[in-house]
Structures are given as structure tokens and as C-alpha cells.
Amino acid sequence: MDFSMSAIRAPLDVPQELRMEYKRSLSTITKGSGRLMLFAGDQKIEHLNDDFHGPGISPDDNDPEHLFRIASGAEIGCFATQMGLIARYGEDYPNVNYLIKLNSKSNLVKTAQAEPFSGLFYSMEQVDGFRKSSALNIPAVGYTIYAGSEYEAHMLHEAAQIIHGAHKRGMIAIIWVYPRGKAVKDEHDPHLIAGAAGLGAALGADFVKVNYPKKDGVDSKEAFKEAVQAAGRCKVLCAGGSTVDVKLFLERLWEQIFVSGASGNATGRNIHQKRLKEAIQMCNAISAIVVNGEGVEEALQIYTGRKEFKVKDYNMS
């Protein structure tokens, strides 16, 4: 597949004079491959300290800087986290491509108490000001929608404004879409996840992150094709989920990309809950599959340190 700069199509809401910047941003975060390895580090709010301290979790992970050390030392496309953390640590890690996560909510309030809602933290004007004052590379923004919540209309409106505002600045917009709320009977239903992917496309997102489908008696990797097709020209990212066996994770990732047709992944816990060296090697193993198109065995060799990793030299001109 040709993913050179000349082959990338910028959406029409990107101003003519910024379309090359948009193309450059997309090519940069995908390493020229068209597929994105997104390191997700937004769980400090989403899951509070549940993901960062406890049995089976490296002691390194309780320090927020662990996330930045990983992002700086590994071959990733983009590191997603909140602007407050980037403001505190970004100066020491200027080589990282940052995605500012523009909304988040904790896991304390359950659906039985209140419908899920995650409101906007910052405007695109404030993001723009931070980009200029920090001089960091911030090519992308992200926002989560809980489709099915009684507050979905508010989140849909905010997401649409974020996408439009990002494109006006030549930036990439990534939308997390999770069906959730009392109206949702099964948030992992393949047909519903396809609807979530289509929702991201209708809003004009460049990437939409969704959960991997699960349903008894259904082949998930085949069912996931519905979501990829429903998203059309919006690229689909699959959430990494809770920590699992490394080989199982890499096998599932390979299927998501090369059987289902997803355009990348967004992984957090399966990376940052490991000690630094192991976490970096896990990032590189994921990138070997997502960016380089390598197989599971090659990725495992990179994870175990038996093989050195280098991003494939794509034509980015």
C-alpha cells in the first residue's frame, strides 16, 4: 500500500495551506506506514492508581515519569496523556510525539449511580497556545465518547468541535468510542462496536479507538471486520485492554491488523505495568507488528531481546 506523502488525502476541512502539515503529522505518527502504534498513558485519571500499583505491577509504574521514560526510549508513533503531565515532564522528553487527551473521567462513579460523562478539559485554542509555548511536537488530540449514555449528545458535540478545530490547525484527531450506559446491554457486541466505529467516521475522526468485540460462538477477528468496514476512511484502532500473556497479546494484535484489517492499536497496561527495559521492548515488539508488518515470532524475539528492532524505512516523501 502506498502511504507516501503524495498519496495521503487530507480531509476537506483541513485548510489548503495546512494540508501538507496534516499529511506530515499523519506520516510522522505512523512512521510512514499508515498504521499507528499509540502508547496510551491516560489511565492516571481513568483508572486512578489501580493500574499503577499492586500485585504483578512493576514498582516503576507508580511514578508518572515511568510513562515518559518508556515513550522516549521506545519506537512508538504517539504517546497519549493529559496536558498536565506533558506540561510537567515534556521538557525532559522532547523527542516524543504527544497526543493531548482532552477529556477523562475516573472509574469511581458507576453506571448504577450516574450515566457516564466525560467533559472537555481544554479548548483547541488553549491546546494551540500550549503547543507554541512548549515547543513540543504535539501532532494530535484525543477525546472519549460514551455512546449510549444519556449525555452522549453533549460528548458528540464536543468531539465534533475538537475534530474540526484539530483539522483547522493541520492536526490529527483520534476519538475513543465506547458504548456504555444503562441503554447498552453488551458493550462488547460486535455489531454495536461496528456502530461505534461508524460514529467516529461520521464525526470526521482520523482514527477511532474501539474495544475488541466479544460474543459467545462468534469469531472475534472475523466479527471485527464489520467495524473496520463501517469506519470507511476513518482508521480503526483496537484497545489493548488489561494485561495478558505477551504471546497471546501479540497473536491477537497480529490478527486485528492482518485478518480484521485494523490500522493500529492503543496499548497502555500491557506496556507500562512492566519494568522500564521490558516495557520498551514490549513497545518495540508491538511496533514490529503494527508498523513493520512482521510476524508474531519476530515480535517475540524483539520482546525477549534476541533481535534488535529498527523501524522499516518507508518512503515518507
Structure, explained:
This protein is of the alpha/beta class. It is 39% helix and 12% strand. The chain is built from 12 helices and 8 strands. It has an 8-stranded parallel barrel with strand order 1-2-3-4-5-6-7-8, surrounded by 7 helices. Helix 7 runs parallel beside helix 8. The protein is globular, with a radius of gyration of 18 Å.
Unreliably modeled segments:
none
Overall spatial form: globular
For the record, give the distance between the C-alpha atoms at the N and C termini, rounded to a whole number.
15 Å
What is the residue-averaged pLDDT?
A: 96
* Rounded Rg: 18 Å
Q: Strand order of the main beta sheet, please?
A: 1-2-3-4-5-6-7-8
Q: Can you write the helix and strand succession as a string?
A: HEHHEHEHEHEHEHEHEHHH
Q: What is the fourth-level CATH superfamily?
A: Aldolase class I
**Structural class computed from helices and strand pairing:** alpha/beta
As a percent range, the share of helical residues equals 25-40%
Give me a quick take on this structure.
By secondary structure, this protein is an alpha/beta fold. 39% of the residues lie in helices and 12% in strands.
Give the topology, please.
Elements: H1 19-29, E1 36-40, H2 43-46, H3 65-73, E2 78-81, H4 83-89, E3 98-101, H5 124-134, E4 140-145, H6 152-168, E5 172-177, H7 190-203, E6 207-210, H8 220-231, E7 235-239, H9 246-258, E8 264-267, H10 269-272, H11 276-290, H12 296-303
Parallel strand pairs: 1-2, 1-8, 2-3, 3-4, 4-5, 5-6, 6-7, 7-8
Helix pairs in contact: 3-11, 7-8, 9-11, 11-12
